[in-house]
Every structure is written in structure tokens, then in C-alpha cells.
Amino acid sequence: MTGERRALLNIGVIGTGSIGVDHIRRVSGSIAGARVAAVFDVDAERVRAVAHEADARALDDAVTLITDDDVDAVLVASPGPLHPEQVLACLDVGKPVLCEKPLGTTVEGCLRVIEAEVSLGRRLVQVGFMRRYDHGYRRVKQVLDSGQVGDVLMVHAVHRNPEAPDGFTSDMSLTDSVVHEMDTMRWLLGEEISAVTVVHGRSSPLSAVGLQDPQLVLLETVSGVLVDVESFVNCQYGYDVGCEVVGSTGTVSLDTPTYAAVTGSGVRGRSVPADWQERFCDAYRAELQEWVDGIAVGDVTGPSAWDGYAATAVAVAAVESQSSLTRAEVKLADKPALYV
Ligand code: NAD
Ligand code: ISE
To answer: Which terminus of the chain has a smaller tally of CB atoms within 10 A, N or C?
Structure first.
């Protein structure tokens, strides 16, 4: 709308854990055109405190929130396996939904979302692959698209978290962490991933018993680009994400933004982000602002349900490769016209 103030978008948030609260604070503090109207979490005590802080209503269950007349759009930040049911409930009532990654942890769950959205005939689902909004990744994509480094041949990627939360499993390293690279690589390279191999070596003595960490994940794209991803969820020293693309005439690397270089004791050093909240704060903000602005003009343009499905299909194949210790092929369904 030009020249007039548009009404605030009332957002309902499901799941008020780490990222739920992070998004709620962001919407309340730095997103124009939206407010948090309602929240739900199975942890009643937690949701009451969050609702109080955000000046929002705490509702009794996910469906009550989704169908509430004063909720215009929904942000799903509950655990991954719950996402398809909650997103489907949003589609049932025709409300836009920003679903945190992953769209689901099974291929079947993601396909149900695609089927429902395709029958509606318009896009309402966006998946929280926020790296697509990061300045660094966008710059890498610009360089690749310009042809400056020639034909892409290989990518070396690193995804390190300081510490995994309790209960984090080797499968989750793939479905919850590396799923970011599975999406980012599809987007950067503009093609699907056709096979994945997970390789295990020596595990860190600091990782929980039973958690294989680090893991090496080799992705193959349809045109034959090889992407190696080191996933290390207990690296201890900070949050570190890297990506170097090797082309036929040059390379391009992702740089981690730093805002200060510290010099002392004979060393000049750049700080390392503490966690994903710090590293990707600008990307989350851009993701949310574009989502809110898009809804105001009836347009959802961010990562789609297809992107969510394709990334999960690769993650599921990676889990298969992890248990069989062999290469797993990724076979995708036909892409509906809605996502072309
Ligand atoms: P978390 O465990 O901190 O929070 C999850 C919350 O969901 C908890 O408060 C839990 O009580 C609640 N919950 C459990 N069952 C529920 C239900 N049936 N209905 C509603 N709420 C329920 O986890 P998190 O780190 O906040 O992750 C949540 C989701 O966000 C995951 O899918 C994760 O992959 C994703 N995530 C994305 C990013 C990113 O960088 N884009 C970062 C962190 C988390
Ligand atoms: C977490 O859920 C995220 O999405 C973070 O971006 C990622 O780095 C981390 O590994 C995940 O567990």
C-alpha cells in the first residue's frame, strides 16, 4: 500500500523455545508492519512468560491459535516432526505460514503439505531457510550467477556449532543441521541434489555417547557438482559456517561478518560468532520483514514447500546412507507447476 498506513499483521507463534522466542522478540522489536498477537507452546509456564513479555495472548493449543480470528499468519517454531500437521492446519484455513526448517522430517509429511498447497492453487507456505537472506551467501550467489568463476565444479562447506543440545542425535546432525546446506546448495547452484554419502571417522571425545561427531557428508548434484560438508555440532569454540565454491576459472568464499578486530598479546584476531542467533541475526530479520511485506501484497516468495520437501528428501537419504554406510540416491517427485 502506498501513501496509507497498512494494518498490522497479527502473527500467531507456535513453539516458544529458542528460535520461537528469538523470532517473537524480533517481530516485537524490529519488524515493521507486524505484531505478535498470540502464542502457544505445550510448556504452559514458558508460554505464559513469553506471552507476558510480548504482550500477546497465550492460547491453549495449536489449532485454537491457527483458527483464531485475530491471527492473520502463523509462525511455526515447534520441533521438526510436528511441522507438517501444523502447516496443514494453516492451509486448511487459508492462512500464510512461515514454518521453521525443516518442513518435516519425513518425505511423506512434506509431500502432504505440497499436495494441500497445490490443491489450493496458491503459495501460502514459506520455509525458514534464512541463509538465503544472508548478505554473504547472497554475494556468493551473485558471483556464481555472473559467471565470474566459470563453471562450478566443487563446494567445500563447514557447519560447526559450539555445543549440541541434550538429546541431539547423529540423525539430527543431518535432518536439523546439514539440512541448511542441503537447501543452500540447491539454491546457490540452481539444481537438485541427486545423491548423498555420509562418511564417519573418529568422533570427538567431547560429544555425547552415541553421537557421531563430526560427520562428513558428500552431496552430488544432478550436473555432477560435488559438495563436501563437515558437520560438527560440538566444536566448542563458537559458531562457524563456511563455504568455498571452486569454479573452472576461480573460487568464491563466504566470509563471516565481524564487527571488530581485537589486537593484543601480539595477535590481531577476528571474533567468532557465539551461536546461530548472532551469526544470522540480519538474515532472520530480512527473512521476517520480506515475509511480512509479501503477505501485505498477497505474495509469498521465500523458500517454498518444494524447497522444504527437496531438502528433507536429501536429509532422509543421508540418514539412510548413515545407517547403511553406502551412497544413497535421492529421487524427487515431479515438481508441480506452482513451484516452477
Ligand atoms: P526448542 O526445543 O528450543 O523449542 C521447541 C519448542 O516447541 C519448545 O518450547 C517445546 O516446548 C515446544 N513444543 C513441543 N511440542 C510442541 C507442540 N506440540 N506444540 C507447540 N509447541 C511444542 O527448539 P528450537 O531450537 O527453538 O527449534 C525449533 C524449530 O526451529 C526446529 O525445527 C529447529 O530446526 C528450528 N530452528 C531453526 C533455526 C534456524 O537457524 N533457522 C535455528 C534454531 C531452530
Ligand atoms: C539449528 O536448528 C539451526 O537451524 C541452526 O541454524 C543450525 O546451525 C543448528 O545446527 C541447528 O541445530
So the answer is: C
Q: Where are the domains of the chain?
A: 9-129+282-304, 132-279+312-339
Fold (CATH) for 9-129+282-304: Rossmann fold (3.40.50)
Indicate which residue's Cα is closest to atom 3 of ligand 2.
177
**Cα separation, 122 vs 21, whole angstroms:** 29
Q: Which residue reads 559456517 in cell numbers?
A: 241
Cα separation, 96 vs 110, in Å, equals 16
In angstroms, the CA 188 to CA 227 distance is 12
- Residue 233 identity: V
C-alpha grid cell for residue 33? 508492519
How far does residue 244's CA lie from ligand 1's centre (Å)?
30
Find out whether the beta carbon of 276 lies less than 6 Å from any atom of ligand 2: yes
Residue range 77-89, pLDDT digits in tens: 999 999 999 999 9
CA distance 193 to 67: 37
Q: What is the pLDDT of residues 166-221, one digit of tens each?
A: 999 999 999 999 999 999 999 999 999 999 999 999 999 999 999 999 999 999 99
The CATH code of the domain at 132-279+312-339 is 3.30.360.10
Q: Which residue's alpha carbon is nearest to atom 38 within ligand 1?
A: 19
Which residues have any ligand 1 atom within 6 Å of their CB? 14-20, 40-43, 46, 62, 77-80, 82, 100-101, 128, 130, 176, 276
Q: Is 308 helix (H, G, I), strand (E, B) or coil?
A: helix
Ligand 1 centroid to 17 CA: how many Å?
A: 5
